[in-house]
Design brief:
Layout (H helix, E strand, L loop, with lengths): L6 H8 L4 E2 L1 H8 L3 H13 L12 E2 L3 H59 L1 H4 L5 H22 L16
Antiparallel strand pairs: 1-2
Helix pairs in contact: 2-3, 4-6
Length: 169
Amino acid sequence: MARFLHYEEALAWAQGQASLTLEGMMRGLDASAAAAASFLRRMEADGLIGPAESDGTHPVLGSRRRRAASQPDREEAAAARLRAELQAALHRAERAEARLAALAAPRAQLGSLRRLLARELHPDAAAPTGDAALHAAYTAIFKTLWPRIETLLAGEPADRDSQPAEAEP
């Protein structure tokens, strides 16, 4: 029955070998085929064993050769990992900036709408000049409507039955 193994156990067992095969590793470690294949792939990636020959045998590399071969590979792997992390971080930053821009756009549009309504409805701009009674009527309408407009633009429900507070023109 195959048992649960750690990579370090496979490394210790492989150090005494001149070459490794999948079947030999399965027998020597009492490992499943999947575990033995996984260890062989990792050992090859780490530069501890050479690529499989035509008969499926992986030569175990010497310590000097292993250090020389594995150091650039490790540096390349670390550089590739860091590049991938950088790309992922840049992608997350772009998505966050897009979300912030999407939140800011409606606020800017509401600000523009608020300024337009104030400019068009304010009695000093909308009421005809020279007629004090008409100016007073425009002022009363503006003071009644403007608090409701502000409430709606703030995203709160407008309550028609309540009396709006007096607003400064």
